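Q: Hi! Curious about what methylmalonate-semialdehyde dehydrogenase (CoA acylating) looks like structurally. Here's the sequence.
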Amino acid sequence: MNAISEQGLKAPTVKLLINGQMVESQTTEWREVINPATQEVLARVPFATQQEIDAAVASAKAAFKTWKKTPIGARARVFLKLQQLIRENMGELAAMLTAEQGKTLPDAEGDVFRGLEVVEHAASIGNLQLGELANNVANGVDTYTLMQPLGVCAGITPFNFPAMIPLWMFPMAIATGNTFVLKPSEQDPMVTMRLCELALEAGVPAGVLNVIHGGEAAVNAICDHPDIKAISFVGSTKVGTHVYNRASLAGKRVQCMMGAKNHAIVMPDANKEQTLNAIAGAAFGAAGQRCMALTTVILVGESQQWIGDLVAKAKTLKISAGTEQGADVGPLISCAARSRVESLIASGVAEGAKLELDGRNPSVVGYEKGNFVAPTIFSAVKPGMAIYDQEIFGPVLCLVAADSLDQAIGFINDNPNGNGTAIFTQSGAAAHKFQEDIDVGQVGINVPIPVPVPLFSFSGSRASKLGDLGPYGKQVVLFYTQTKTITSRWFDDASTGTLNTTISLK
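A: Let's find out. The predicted structure is below.
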């Protein structure tokens, strides 16, 4: 939590959402929301009090009594309306996101759009929340299942996708009949709050969606609250592991999407220009601040000669504020994030990696106070170096050499993380071997960031994920529902008035 500046005291306050009302917090603890390109204070965000958190959960618990009985078609129509409102307000949402998070306007629109796809998927809940029926499993006996909502669920979201990731969570939770308490990132909550306003406009009833703000204390309160049944988390490995352990011990369902170290293999037969463009976008887009960023490229055989071409491609990217026309790489979220990335770059030099392109201290005219780091490329990177072992979360790309596809696959499988990976090749045999042998949950073939559309589930694996079921898609319907199995028997002689309660399964 930061001290509030004089500029911050004059800034508007971010509200809480409790029982359908935007509420001014009574807290004495605040944090400033700062434009990372200009250091302008955009707003003050409150760290909600325990009483306010309890009120949000109580509101959700009360609303669940009626929302769970709302017809599935009525729930679906709310999200049909919400997707329309998001489309109508796309420009406003993207501009707000860019101001507080820093990513370029095209990236911001993509952030909103990928969340919008999940809203559209939530509108098809009638086809997703279907049980099963086995007729006449024994003499006159049927067995069938119901997929019923859990109750109050909660979401904890990161700063890097303040539109997409909240939209991964609350639409699917609410569509399946649950109520929700959301804690967005305290660094950039404004676009999240605007999306919640649109959700209320779309018809989400009072209490069904609630929002609190805060830091560690708010996270712990969500983990500990006895009325919260399930938690979805996206963020760092450190915090995600804490959330998973603490909330699981409290008896909650938990899914945590955490840190990553994503690799791509470049085979010598890959289409060179397409591959270079894909790598540049995946490594440096969103200033590298995404858990699916491409951070490590393994150059196999003759593709090792492409380093100069990759450096030249990176130099063509425009570094500027996200609002500037043609900007490719915006600022990092905070001064602290910039300092951390710069220190990791320095460690790479000290530990013996070859700095092919140094992005520290770029000149960005008109935005001299911005948190900018330009594209940075290292070659000769090895495990044990901090730039490889740690998730940098900045526009830094590590290059590794390999003699064969088998050696490259082994290198990736030795890394503990399993969020995403890719191969660039024109060989079907190489692609097939890669998809079969690689131990990573999401695989791209000539696709650098293989995040699936919402018809499927996000399926990161190993150290990148805790919990069995992923966000959105079919898996999250299972996460947000409890399966109830019913075995029934109705007698042909019911008209006689005789009640026979004995069921034989012979």
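A: A fun detail: The mean pLDDT is 96.
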